[in-house]
Amino acid sequence: MRPPGCGMLTLALLAVKCLLGPAYRSTDYQVHRSWMAITHTAPWQTWYQDNRTHWTLDYPPFFAWWERLRAMPAAWIEPNLLKLDDDADVTDSNQAVAYQRGTVMMAETLVLATGAWYFARTLQGAEKRTSRKNEGMVGKARRDWARASVTMGLVGNAGLVIVDHIHFQFNGMLLGVLVWSLAFAKSGKNVLSALCFAVLLNLKHLFAYAAPVYFLFLLRNHCRGKFAIVHFFALAATVSLVTAASVGPFLWAGQGKAMLGRLFPFGRGLLHAYWAPNFWALYAGADKLFVLLVQKLYRMPPMREGNLARGLVGVQDFAILPNITPRICGSVFVLALSPCLVSLWRFPTRGRFLSAVGYSYLCGFMFGYHVHEKAVLHFLVVYALNAVSSMWSYGQFVLMAKASYYSLMPLLFTRAEAPIKILLVEVLHFCHLFFLQGCHGGIAPLGRWGGAAPVLSIVFALLQGYNGLLHGFLFGVELPFLPLMLQSTVSGVVLFAVWLRELTHWTRSLSTSSSPDSR
């Protein structure tokens, strides 16, 4: 049995995404529409100072220019899209929705789908350079399965479909740039890899968690030999030119301070309105639990609790545990990443680099400041790529996928989308795992952890049943944030366990030159 090719899979998935056009749209639909309006109606010298709408521009300059590019066809397809007006009758017309959804699908196809195709081609090249004894080799008999797995893990990623094609965002385009960068690095084209990563950072700066990994890998892998200095200045010039082209004009126009304030709004607090399932969600949950225990044990009157469960954006105050600042988050992130950086410095191989990028995004998600739940996509797609040729990453992906996908469920809170989101996750994830099994000859991952995957499926099914049905029956309109807390903390426990496994794995890899994924 041969799996479908990349092109066939992409077209089939594109048809599914077209059917999702009339589905629920979040406020991000209005955010991106407003950014189009800002970049169309205001001179570029004032984009980061424009306050005519509360959906102010807070992405780097390249993304602002992308919104300006989208605004050009919108001016004659649906001019109402470019009005600074949140009137639903104006912005939710059939033409407006079709154009907005269409640009998401077009950008994803042009960048992510082609990136998946190119990355799959690098697997064939790696086969010729790799011994048959190496676990990272993708044999000829499994090459088609590898291509299908890469396409399904990226273009058919269940989380990406939920976030981009229902909730509404442009993560597929951004992740596509990352995939191109990783593919170039995997094929030895380091300058092009650095170029793509620099472009990515100037599209969305939150991808910078992998910057230390890129810096060390390029320094150790590319800048060596008698032309090391030349290679270093070539990389530096490439990154500098991209950054200057992006940020330079806005600095010249005097928007540097305004742009910096928009890109790094530390006043929004440690936690997003809906807690991302990371370490800080567990920290906040522990604070709430300690409050209850203290009141119960010491029969104290109600304590002043931090504003952790109101579903609002703002700086949170913990009632018992110490408050967490951006500096603390940064320090914990660097500490968590350090075994990976040391390992990559000692053994700067391409296989280890791909693993390190995935781990850096996992660390950034677990310990970053004001992390959004949608950031699970950053490490999910990298682990999905690595799972094609690595049994270790395959097992890690199986453990993290369900927790990540179900943590995105609260983004779609309307009843109409309840069966759709569950069906999408289960079907797309099943297809992806089916292709991954083909890559690995039907060998099950995880070893003695093999029983964890079905247990997690049962846990998240029960949790979804409680959040969607039982909670309303038991509490009515009371405790509205409880289902979100449960989803965040349960998913957070799973992802924290995955991170601990990964940390142990990287620590053990410090003493061997083989890739951590080959062990």
Descriptive account of the structure:
The protein is mainly α. The protein contains 20 helices and no strands. It has helices at residues 6-19, 27-41, 61-77, 88-91, 94-129, 143-154, 158-168, 171-186, 190-201, 211-222, 228-252, 256-263, 279-298, 326-346, 350-367, 376-386, 391-407, 418-439, 452-475, 482-509. The longest helix has 36 residues, at 94-129. The radius of gyration is 23 Å and the shape is globular. The model is unreliable at 129-138 (pLDDT under 50).
Task: Give me a quick take on this structure.
The protein is mainly α and 519 residues long.
DSSP summary, beta strand count:
0
SSE pattern:
HHHHHHHHHHHHHHHHHHHH
Largest sheet: none
What is the C-alpha radius of gyration, as a whole number of Å? 23 Å
Distance between the termini: 30 Å
3D shape:
globular
Give the low-confidence spans.
129-138
Number of helices: 20
Secondary-structure-derived class: mainly alpha
Core attributes:
519 residues, 20 helices
Write the layout of secondary structure elements.
Blueprint: H1 6-19, H2 27-41, H3 61-77, H4 88-91, H5 94-129, H6 143-154, H7 158-168, H8 171-186, H9 190-201, H10 211-222, H11 228-252, H12 256-263, H13 279-298, H14 326-346, H15 350-367, H16 376-386, H17 391-407, H18 418-439, H19 452-475, H20 482-509
Helix pairs in contact: 1-5, 2-3, 5-6, 5-8, 6-18, 7-18, 8-9, 9-11, 10-14, 10-15, 13-20, 14-15, 14-20, 15-16, 15-20, 16-17, 17-18, 17-19, 17-20, 19-20
